[in-house]
């Protein structure tokens, strides 16, 4: 059984979608070992506790990034986590954090990377005038929203969309994409081929 550590900063709807997939038996072979938020009042933490999951707030409290991250890494190790899922975790990881779990950290981002990294990706895409938007699940490396892509889902931009309606439709796809990506990674059926993550021959 692969043990997931899920990190988020706020609402936690992607975390809940993963938890729901596991509870519904749609994401086999894994369990949530711990959820961690850098915000003690993150709604996702309360939702995790309601489900009886280990839920920990680790706030930065003015500490340097590397120091804060070291506390998070220790917590993930205590819970014997195999795979880390950033799900709306709005802090860049320190190199020490990334190196502590090589190729074992995933992130979801609400754009078709490499377009529109950073904050408010859906708004950036809408304001740019794209006709196709979407989301990306990727391995985390030391650059922002950058590592090898596990999978992407596309969302057409409709004529009567505004940034909010588009964001909502992207979020629906995020909720499907993350569980699919986790299943792909824990299946052991995929391997790295340069910047590609491909099914093994
Ligand atoms: C999601 O849209 C996620 O893709 C985004 O934050 C939102 C969190 O929502 N992440 C990023 O922009 C990371 N660069 P949630 O808390 O409801 O899952």
TrEMBL record:
GO cellular component, one term: cytoplasm
Binding sites annotated in the UniProt record for (6R)-10-formyltetrahydrofolate: 65, 90-93, 107
Catalytic reactions on record: N(1)-(5-phospho-beta-D-ribosyl)glycinamide + (6R)-10-formyltetrahydrofolate = N(2)-formyl-N(1)-(5-phospho-beta-D-ribosyl)glycinamide + (6S)-5,6,7,8-tetrahydrofolate + H(+)
Residues reported to bind N(1)-(5-phospho-beta-D-ribosyl)glycinamide: 12-14
Gene Ontology molecular function: any one: phosphoribosylglycinamide formyltransferase activity
Record Gene3D superfamilies: Formyl transferase, N-terminal domain
Domain Formyl transferase N-terminal stretches: 3-182
SUPFAM superfamilies (UniProt xref): Formyltransferase (SSF53328)
GO biological process: 'de novo' IMP biosynthetic process
Site keyed Raises pKa of active site His: positions: 145
List of catalytic residues: 109 (proton donor)
Coiled-coil residue spans: none
EC code(s) of this entry: 2.1.2.2
Pathway assigned to this chain's UniProt record: Purine metabolism; IMP biosynthesis via de novo pathway; N(2)-formyl-N(1)-(5-phospho-D-ribosyl)glycinamide from N(1)-(5-phospho-D-ribosyl)glycinamide (10-formyl THF route): step 1/1
Keyword vocabulary terms for this entry: Purine biosynthesis, Transferase
InterPro entries: Formyl_transf_N, Formyl_transf_N_sf, GART, GART_AS
Family to which this protein belongs: Belongs to the GART family.
Protein name: Phosphoribosylglycinamide formyltransferase
Protein's organism: Paracidobacterium acidisoli
Lineage, highest ranks first: Bacteria, Pseudomonadati, Acidobacteriota, Terriglobia, Terriglobales
